[in-house]
Every structure is written in structure tokens, then in C-alpha cells.
Design goal:
Structural class: alpha/beta
Order of helices and strands: HEHEEHEHHEEHEEH
Number of helices: 7
Shape: globular
Radius of gyration: 23 Å
Helix content: 40-55%
Strand order of the largest sheet: 1-2-3-4
Strand content: 15-25%
Number of strands: 8
């Protein structure tokens, strides 16, 4: 495991030290994976610097862009996403931020011959004409496969690059607006905002002065359960530095400004109810 910094990005010095340690022990590192949008907070690693390190050390540079790589097409995308151009391979899940139905995964590889060298095979029961064609079993482990790419291709034809850039930009703007609203609300602590992900937690006013970390974790877990059961909104969670946080991830082009403005009031109402219930339960237990 390579530690992360305070912004949840990979620590480049720790990575270089780990590579050196492997080589001293006679082991041969071969792959570095950078994140273009981590699951919990949407943090983007310093991809250009990771690419430079991999070139210097002769390592394959892969980027996990399953969620966040498409933000490179947005004018306001993080500059670190420019490092995608230096990667040997990139993973993208169109069913995330390209709004495609489940499931659709994509692996982009700079040199397709690297895939053929790893996966191509010709058993005696294969017989193809001499015509040039792309046989996808030459490029991965899966032999028979459905036409998952059709739904992605159709969406690209319909929206185009400009349409996707506009929608992704709006999702990021809305997540930033959510961060601002939660930061300004007296009952919340806004923690992170990256790409279209904002994390925050409910902190009752009576706990502002003397934080009870264990209680706040339990309270926000109970709060998330109540929100899910209500059906009013859907949030997920993240653990950051020992804190249980509520996580807002906007990957729906139908999400609106009105949705975001309504969110703090809805969550605060459930937060007060959860806080009262937990306090009552604690009193009865005593």
C-alpha cells in the first residue's frame, strides 16, 4: 500500500521509495496504477508526475479512470488529467460518467500489439478467411462477447463530445454548489469536493464545540440509513481519516440546481431525527 497525502492523492516520494525497496530486495516492479477520480472522494492523482516516474523507471503506467477520466473532456477538468495522454493504458466505465446503462467497461491501450502479444491464440478449430478483421478475443481474456459497445456508440453519436463536455461540466458545478451549501449550513461539515463528488457529515450544533468522533460516526451511519429508507434522495458514504462521511456523486445529466438546493434541508431534517433518536436510546440505556 502506498500512502496518500492530506488531499487523498498518492504520495510520490513514498511510491519511489517503495520501488527502490523492491529492487533492493531483488524484486522487479512492473506496474504503477494512478487514480483519475478515486471512489470515495474523486481525488485525482498527480498523473503527469506519475507518468514521468514510470518512464524513468521503465514501468507500465496504468490509470484507473473508471469514474473520472471523462472529465478530461471538460474545460474545467483538473489539470492533472492531462497525464492521461502519457498513460500506457486507461480504464473507463461508460456506465458511470458517460451515462450508459449497466454494464459497459472499456480498456484503452496505447499499443494494441501489447494486448495481442498477451492474449492472441489460434486453436485448430479456429478458421478465418484471410481478410483483415478485428477479432476481439485477440485483445482480452473473454472469447464470446456481446455488443456492449453499441449503447455507448449510440450515446456518443447522439450527444457528441461537446454534449458530454457540457453535461460533465454541469455535474461538477452542481457538486461544487452542494459543497458550498453544506459548508454554509450550521448543521454540516463539508469535507471534500473533487470532480462531481462532495463529501460531508451532519454535526449537531450541540456537538460543534466538543466533537465526539465515535458518536458522529454512529450518527451519520444512522442518518444514511434513514435517508435511504425515506426514498427522498440517494446518498452513499465514504470513510476519510477515520470519519464516516455522506457522499454525493452526481453522474446523472438530469440532476438540477433545484435538486441540490433542496438537499441540505432534507438531510438536516433526517439528521435531527436521528440525533434525537440516538440520544433518547442512550438515555434509556443508562
Amino acid at each position: 500500500w502506498i500512502p496518500a497525502d492530506a488531499a487523498q492523492r498518492i504520495d510520490l516520494r513514498a511510491l519511489a521509495a517503495a520501488i527502490d525497496d523492491d529492487e533492493r530486495r531483488g524484486e522487479q516492479p512492473f506496474l504503477v496504477v494512478g487514480s483519475a477520480g478515486t471512489v470515495s472522494t474523486g481525488a485525482v492523482d498527480p498523473l503527469p508526475e506519475l507518468a514521468a516516474l514510470c518512464r524513468e523507471r521503465g514501468l507500465w503506467f496504468h490509470v484507473d479512470g473508471a469514474y473520472g477520466a471523462v472529465a478530461a473532456a471538460a474545460p474545467d477538468g483538473p489539470p492533472d488529467l492531462d497525464g492521461l495522454a502519457e498513460a500506457d493504458s486507461v480504464a473507463v466505465d461508460p456506465h458511470k460518467w458517460l451515462y450508459a446503462p449497466l454494464e459497459a467497461g472499456c480498456a484503452l491501450v496505447r499499443d494494441p500489439e501489447a494486448l495481442r502479444a498477451a492474449f492472441s491464440y489460434s486453436p485448430p478449430y479456429y478458421h478465418f478467411s484471410g481478410e483483415e478483421a478485428i477479432n476481439y478475443f485477440d485483445y482480452g481474456m473473454q472469447n464470446s462477447r456481446g455488443f456492449r459497445a453499441l449503447k455507448v456508440w449510440l450515446a456518443l453519436q447522439r450527444a457528441g463530445r461537446a454534449g458530454y463536455a457540457r453535461m460533465v461540466t454541469e455535474d461538477m458545478r452542481l457538486a461544487g454548489e452542494a459543497y458550498r451549501l453544506f459548508a454554509a449550513h450550521p448543521e454540516f461539515e463539508a469535507v471534500t469536493h473533487n470532480l462531481s463528488i462532495t463529501t460531508f457529515r451532519y454535526v449537531p450544533p450541540d456537538l460543534r464545540a466538543a466533537e465526539d468522533a465515535g458518536y458522529l460516526n454512529s450518527l451519520n451511519q444512522e442518518l444514511l440509513t434513514r435517508i435511504e429508507r425515506s426514498g427522498e434522495v440517494f446518498l452513499s458514504n465514504a470513510w476519510v481519516d477515520g470519519r464516516f462521511l455522506l457522499r454525493l456523486c452526481i453522474v446523472n445529466f438530469r440532476t438540477s440546481q433545484a435538486d441540490i438546493e433542496a438537499l441540505p434541508g432534507i438531510v438536516a431534517r433526517h439528521g435531527r431525527e436521528a440525533h434525537a433518536a440516538l440520544r433518547q436510546g442512550a438515555g434509556e440505556g443508562a
